[in-house]
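Support request, please re-run this one:
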Amino acid sequence: MSWYFSSVLENKSDFFEFFEFNQYSMHLVELWDPSVHVGGAHKIPCSLMGSSNTKLVIDASEFISLFEFDTDSLTTFLQTNRVVIYQNIDCFVELTKRLRIAFENIDSNIPKNCLHVIFDAVPSTEFYFYSFKNINFTVLTHNHFFKLPRIHKASLEKNKTSKDFLLTTIKKSSRPHRELLWKQLQAYPELTVNSTILYKTRQKKWIGHQTHQHQWSDGHPSMDLYRNNYVELVPETLYKHGYFFTEKTMKPIATKTPFLIVSTCHYLKFLKQQGFKTFDNLIDESYDSFPQIEDRIRSLVQTMHDISKNGAGDFYQQAQDTLNYNHQRLLEISGGWRYYRDLDYQRIIDSMC
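Re-run finished. Output below.
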């Protein structure tokens, strides 16, 4: 049994680092061939095409390229070998698009268990992937977003809070739910006049305090904003097909800030399955249960009205037990995420022996 990692995954994936740490035998292989196609394409090297019992680990974009350039060679390779698709942070969105075509075309032409996908998001029950017969997938127990960020000055108190709602999000064409939320909020200025609401392109300067150690502004809470706003509106990465816990949900939990979340239907139920609590004992969270994203956002805005009418500060005070509980739960997961991730990887390796 020989393991090969695509060179693009070197030092860019936890799975690769797991092999290095445990001193498992592996080899790096270059899949990009600039001499083929127009401008080059990914191709399985001739040295591997005649092999058997080889495990090739690649990322999602490489698999798409292999399929689109030479489906026959990919299918032939899979007859006697295995391919593991290790998808990086936002590739789950891509899996709902171009990879679906690839999977549908090769599923009936490959042996069972020869293609394995590692998800860092949890597919919803209607996700197309469940229909495949010969493709396996593993959902990682906890992705790296569960790691707790450092809190500036180690203070979470909202002693001098003056604003109700916090929303700072990025414009992306692949995230139409953010545009829907933005348009809904613009229609109700009474909700935004006493809030910090910003919908921007990534090129614009990040707002809020960031220490010089922060190399990734999105991943760390700007504590001047969190101390000055009672409730955060969270437009998560996914709004359909699956459940993906990112820094967007992690930051309000880490800063003990109540949250309203726009994501896939029943995302709050998903959070509870991870051991967290929500605020259904204090506010109407039925917004999370509407199948259509437009209805979820419309209902969420109504919940914002209720919070504003009754006092965002009072809501924050009444939510203290839940906020403290969630913060402690995140600390527990943050402390154990590496062990759980290693356990997931070891199970994958053992299943392929």
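The longest strand covers residues 163-170. The chain has a mean pLDDT of 90.
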